[in-house]
Automatic annotation (TrEMBL):
Name by which UniProt lists this protein: Arsenite efflux pump ArsB, ACR3 family
Family to which the UniProt record says this protein belongs: Belongs to the arsenical resistance-3 (ACR3) (TC 2.A.59) family.
InterPro entries, per database record: Arsenical-R_Acr3, BilAc:Na_symport/Acr3, Na+/solute_symporter_sf
Keywords: Cell membrane, Membrane, Transmembrane, Transmembrane helix, Transport
The organism's taxonomic lineage, starting at the top: Bacteria, Bacillati, Actinomycetota, Actinomycetes, Pseudonocardiales
Length: 320
């Protein structure tokens, strides 16, 4: 894990604070608002550049863990997200939508890092990435319309357009970059140059997007600070329930330890960058949704780091 990745949670928090202060002190809100979505789209392009579709072959050889991951990510988690939002955030529709967008989008990037740290099965983890990405593209509009309820107040077509912009445009750009680099420079140069550059740019672009988001919505952040804090409750419940459910599922299915680890990390990690980009594109008039998603990594990343260390610690413990 690079220094950027180890410090990501701290850097995101610092960017949020710096952006809020800058937005309150300087007249940069409108200009900053035009930076958020392009920065996120560039970041997602870099993430998708690193996706290798050839890893799908591993999914056929580990169909049990893949099936368990899909059920937990795309059936159980949306229902849990709806229940948490209804029970704990029923008074705040924007936070409910933010929570839903976050929880129904399985991670397609940094869960690989934490899976490696926890000594999970990296082949299966990589195989799950393109599957999760495609299913997000197909199911996100349905989740928002079916589980968001009347508070969404947005046409299905608008959500579909936002999903196409946020996912398909970076994905298409990434495919073109990989194809062009392989054709003109060879796969070796792509692996030595394109992939490392894409990986190294992800965190800086996320920090730019977070800074611009909070500068753009600085007054919204200040006015609704207490409301955003209430999001911590359902997030805490999710990050306690999901590791327990995924671990129990892995044991019930008698999965090997490395696959149980992969199942846990792939069902706990969420895709806040994609959810944030979608919120900016689909709900431009409701900034609290995007603000709540910008805060989410501050909770998620330390939790993932803790889980990876706990799982690795158990595997290192001597049998007794």
């Amino acid at each position: 894990m690079s220094l950027w990745e180890r410090l990501q949670s701290v850097l995101v928090a610092a960017s949020a604070v710096a952006g809020t202060l800058a937005g309150l002190a300087l007249p940069i809100g409108e200009a900053a608002g035009h930076v958020v979505l392009p920065a996120l789209l560039l970041m997602l392009t870099g993430v998708f550049v690193q996706v290798d579709a050839t890893s799908l072959g591993e999914a056929r050889r580990a169909h049990t863990v893949v099936a368990a991951s899909l059920v937990l990510n795309f059936v159980w988690t949306p229902l849990l997200a709806w229940a948490l939002g209804t029970v704990l955030l029923g008074h705040n529709p924007d936070l409910r939508i933010g929570l839903l967008l976050l929880l129904v989008t399985p991670c397609t990037d940094w869960y690989l890092v934490f899976t490696g740290l926890a000594r999970g099965h990296m082949g299966v983890a990589a195989a799950l990435l393109p599957i999760n990405l495609v299913l997000q593209l197909m199911l996100l509009p349905l989740y928002v319309m079916l589980l968001g309820g009347p508070v969404t107040s947005i046409a299905l077509g608008t959500i579909v357009q936002a999903v196409l912009l946020v996912l398909l445009v970076p994905l298409a750009a990434a495919v073109l970059l990989r194809s062009a680099s392989s054709r003109w420079a060879g796969a070796g140069l792509r692996e030595r140059v394109l992939d490392p550059v894409a990986s190294a740019s992800a965190v800086p672009l996320l920090l730019v997007a977070v800074f611009a988001m909070f500068a753009w919505q600085a007054r919204t952040v200040v006015e609704h600070a207490l409301a955003v804090v209430t999001l911590l409750g359902p997030l805490a419940v999710f990050f306690v329930v999901m590791p327990a459910v995924s671990t129990a599922t892995g044991r019930a299915l008698r999965l090997p330890r490395s696959q149980r680890v992969t199942l846990t990390m792939s069902t706990v990690a969420r895709n806040s960058p994609i959810a944030l980009a979608l919120a900016v594109a689909a709900f431009p008039g409701r900034p609290l949704i995007a603000v709540s998603l910008a805060v989410a990594p501050l909770i998620e990343l330390p939790v993932l780091a803790l889980i990876s260390q706990l799982v690795r610690g158990r595997s290192d413990a001597p049998a007794g």
